[in-house]
Write a structure and sequence with these properties.
Layout lengths: L1 E3 L3 E4 L2 E4 L6 H11 L10 H22 L4 E4 L6 H10 L3 E2 L3 H38 L10 E5 L2 H13 L4 E5 L13 E5 L6 H25 L6 H11 L3 H18 L5 E4 L5 H13 L2 E4 L18 E3 L3 H10 L4 E3 L2 H8 L11 E4 L5 H14 L3 E4 L15 E3 L3 H5 L3 E4 L4 H6 L4 E5 L3 H10 L8 E4 L2 H16 L5
Parallel strand pairs: 1-4, 4-5, 6-7, 6-9, 7-8, 9-10, 10-11, 11-12, 13-14, 13-16, 14-15, 16-17, 17-18
Antiparallel strand pairs: 1-2, 2-3
Length: 487
């Protein structure tokens, strides 16, 4: 008998996390399914195939197969059990029909109206939001320079602008103020809020078309994933992304509107998006208007072939390994590995000159594991510093004594002993004279480090799989630093 909890299963007195079954064969299997979605017009197809099909649905199915589960018993209630019921039916796994079974069966039928209600609610909310923003600000269609830089996150802003400055680009930054604020002026660039492009009078006229596009995205998910997910699972996917539909189609509309007005002036579009819904939107724009697209990835590339290609005609890879992997998967993109460009992007300035510190960077995707590592470090050393991921909170580590939180990324990444699990931070540390150590304690992190993130197979990154080994290594480093041998 196998007991199934939300994020793990219990077999013969032992717990297993679903992600222990992540492997190359599973990735290849999902990539095979992706081939049938290459002509999709959905904005969320890449996201769904990676985060839902690979990292959720097939991951669970694979674990049941590996552990030879024949009979299972649910131990939680939730919409996500729609995946499980389909897996059990497909793989002929017997499920115990207790109160968990019947309650989950009932709530699966609620997925359909709940998903539709969520779409309508967030669409109405978004309409008021964009309308209010268009009233509050002066509308502008003025384009300056030759390059249009599209920004949806602070990380992308930082990397794209460092690239632009190093290449002496001139142009316009079009940014999403719903996702970030830009309070800085950049030489040779004008900055425009995406929400100040369309006048409120025009917005009123196009709202019906935007709503039509929202439901078109809903229909595409339901139709295109018919051979992959059952009815309830498709509505579960729709439910997950329902709050992003209107925002996505609005961004698509505004970019099309802005580029159309300035198409004769725009020579290239630069973005930090790789495979997200925004990357798909931006690819649609450069293909429609025949404009060159340049990707400066804001994060590490995955060794995973998405249904829709990565953004751009030119893609600056974060490593030689990443370049080689991506060239095999995407033949129509020119991948470039340029160490000078990477140094310009990753090198930080204005940091304090200080003694070397041990700094652990959290990643927010597995807070429990980060907590475990930090607890160990705090017991072994009295000078541990923690740099939180933007999506992480101090409260998650409030019970750990003897740690110091640092706010400055620049001070944290430079000239220190940088510790994390799997993150771009490891590459950034290398380019800022830090000793970078990747802590790999479970099967998932090991697979991510050795396969899924090609750029982490860097000779400058030290990989540690046991905390006792980490303790010994850090002590040796600290000793060498004292006697003048370290770094």
């Amino acid at each position: 008998m196998t007991d199934i909890y939300k994020n793990k299963i219990f077999i013969n007195g032992e717990y297993f996390n679903f992600d222990i079954s992540l492997n190359k064969e599973l990735v290849n299997k999902v990539e095979g399914v992706n081939e049938n979605l290459t002509h999709s017009k959905g904005l969320f197809v890449n996201t769904i195939c990676f985060h839902q099909l690979l990292m959720n649905y097939e991951l669970k199915s694979n674990l049941f197969l590996e552990r030879k589960c024949k009979k299972v018993r649910l131990k939680y209630i939730g919409f996500s059990t729609s995946y499980l019921f389909e897996i059990f039916k497909r793989d002929k796994i017997i499920i115990v029909k207790d109160h968990y079974y019947f309650i989950n069966r009932i709530i699966h039928f609620l997925l359909i109206p709940t998903s539709l209600i969520k779409i309508i609610f967030y669409s109405i909310l978004s309409i008021f939001y964009v309308f209010f923003k268009s009233l509050k600000q002066n509308n502008s269609l003025i384009f300056y320079g030759e390059s249009l830089v599209l920004i949806h996150s602070n990380t992308a802003l930082n990397k794209c602008m460092k690239f632009c400055i190093s290449k002496n680009e001139k142009g316009t930054i079009l940014y999403d103020s719903h996702k970030l604020k830009i309070n800085k002026n950049y030489d040779n660039f004008t900055v425009i809020d995406l929400y100040k492009i369309v006048k409120s009078s025009h917005l009123i006229k196009v709202i019906p078309e935007l709503l039509k596009s929202v439901f078109k995205q809903t229909k595409l998910i339901y139709k295109e994933f018919k051979q992959i997910f059952g009815v309830f699972s498709r509505f579960y996917v729709i439910f997950i992304y329902a709050d992003r539909f209107f925002h996505s189609v609005y961004v698509s509309f505004v970019l099309d509107f802005f580029v159309k007005e300035n198409v004769k002036k725009i020579k290239k579009i630069i973005s930090g998006e790789k495979e997200s819904r925004f990357a798909i939107i931006e690819n649609n724009i450069i293909n429609k208007f025949k404009i060159e697209g340049v990707c400066i990835p804001h994060g590490l590339e995955y060794n995973f072939k998405y249904p829709k290609p990565l953004f751009g005609n030119i893609f600056y890879a974060t490593s030689e390994n990443a370049k080689n992997s991506l060239e095999i998967m995407y033949q129509n993109i020119h991948f470039i590995f340029d160490e000078t460009v990477l140094k310009n992007i990753y090198k930080v300035f204005g940091h304090k000159i200080q003694d070397k510190k041990i700094v652990f960077f959290t990643d927010s995707r597995n807070i429990k594991l980060d907590h475990f590592i930090i607890s160990f470090l705090a017991l072994e050393f009295n000078d541990i510093y923690v740099k939180l991921h933007p999506n992480d909170l101090k409260d998650n580590y409030s019970d750990i004594e003897n740690i110091n939180f640092v706010n400055s990324f620049n001070d944290s990444i430079c000239d220190n002993i940088v510790l994390t699990r799997n993150s771009t931070v490891l590459l950034e540390g290398i380019y800022n004279n830090s000793t970078c150590i990747s802590i790999i304690l479970n099967t998932k992190d090991k697979f991510i480090s050795n396969y899924l993130y090609p750029s982490l197979n860097n000779l400058g990154i030290i990989k540690i799989e046991k905390l006792e080994e980490l303790k010994v290594l850090i002590k040796k480093m600290k000793k060498n630093e004292i006697i003048g041998l370290y770094n």
